[in-house]
Amino acid sequence: MTATMTATRTAWHIPRYGRPEILTPVTLPMPEPGPTEILIRIDASAVTRADGMMRRGEPLFARPFLGLRRPRNGLSGTGLSGEVIAVGANVRRFAPGDRVFGEAGLQFGANASHICLDENGVLMPKPDALSHEDAAVLCDGVLTSWHFLRTLARVKRGDRVLILGGSGSLGTAAVQIAAHLGAEVSATTSPRNASLVASLGASHVIDYTSEEALRPGAGYDVIFDTVGVATFSAAKPALANTGAYLCPVLTLSRLPAVLLTGLFGTKKSVFAAAGLEKPSRLRAMLSEILTLIEEDRLAPVMDRIYPLTELVEAHTFVETGHKRGNVVVV
User: Fold this and answer.
1) pLDDT value for 3
2) One Pfam match, by short name (predicted)?
C-alpha cells in the first residue's frame, strides 16, 4: 500500500435531517484503504436533487435504510471524480496515479477532499478527454436516464418519448439519450431553457407554464417524468396503448400504480432503481455511456461549479429547482 500524503481530510457532516444550512464542514482523520479499497483525492463531486432528498431524509419510508435521524454515515455526497493516491494490498483494478470516477452510494461522503471506496464498487477509469467536473455527474442524471430509457423502457427508433423536466440533470441527459436511440423527443421546460433543450435533440419543446404536455390521445410510447411532477393516472391518457410511464422519484403514493400495472393492463407504470443494480452492471452501463461521450453523441450539461467550501450555497441553489443540467463542487 502506498503511504497517504496527509493525516486529515475535509468533509461535510449532516448532524440531522434538515435544510441546507444544517450541513457542517468537518476535519476527519485520513482513512487507510483496506485490502480491496482505494483512497481517492477528490477533484470534483456532484450536488444533486437526490443529495438534497437524502439531506432532508426524504422520502420518509426510506429512513429505516438511510438512518432514522440522519444518514448513517453522516456525510454528504455520492458522485465524484479524482485521483487514486493509495491502494490496499489486494487491489488489482487501480493503481496510485489513476484518474477515476464513480459514486459512493449509501456510504456517502463524496463532498470531501478524500474518500476510501472498494475497488469493486461503481468506479471507472476516467478518460483523459473528460473533465473531472463532467465525470463527477455521470452517475446521477446520465446513468439514471440511461437505465430508465435504455434498460427499462427499451426505447427504440420511431418511439414517441416525452421528457417531463427537460432542463435538469436527468432531463438534459434523457433528451440526448432518447434522441440517440432514434426516438421522436418532446420535452417540457420553461421558456428560458427552450433553446437549450431543443439543441440537445428535442423535436418538440413544450412550455410547461402555458401548454398542457399530457394531452389525452397524444400517444406517447414513453413518458419519463424526471422530477416527479405527474402521476401515472395523469399520464395514462397521454400514453399509447402499450405505453409506459417512468419516474425515478419513488413515493408511497406511486407504489400502487407500479405494482398494479405490472399485473393488469397494457399501459404500465415502471420503476427500478439504478442504485439497486449490481456494481458490475452499473459499470457496464457507464462503459456504454463513455462510448457515446467519446463519439460526441452525449455530453453532460453543466450549470454551476462551486468551491467545496460553498456546499451550503450549492445545495441551496439546487433546491430552487431552476438549475440547467448539473452542479458540482471542486
Assistant:
1) 46
2) ADH_zinc_N_2
**Domain residue spans of the chain:** 8-137+300-329, 140-275
Q: For the domain 8-137+300-329, what is the CATH code?
A: 3.90.180.10
One fold for 8-137+300-329 and 140-275: no
Residue 92, Cβ density class (10 Å: 0-12 exposed, 13-18 middle, ≥19 buried): exposed
Per residue in 100-135, pLDDT (tens digit) is 999 998 899 999 999 999 999 999 999 999 999 999
Block residue for cell numbers 414513453: 222
Residue range 33-91, pLDDT digits in tens:
999 999 999 999 999 999 999 999 888 887 887 888 888 889 999 999 999 999 999 99
CATH superfamily of 140-275: NAD(P)-binding Rossmann-like Domain (3.40.50.720)
At position 255, the amino acid (one-letter code) is: L
Tens digit of pLDDT for each residue in 17-44?
999 999 999 999 999 999 999 999 999 9
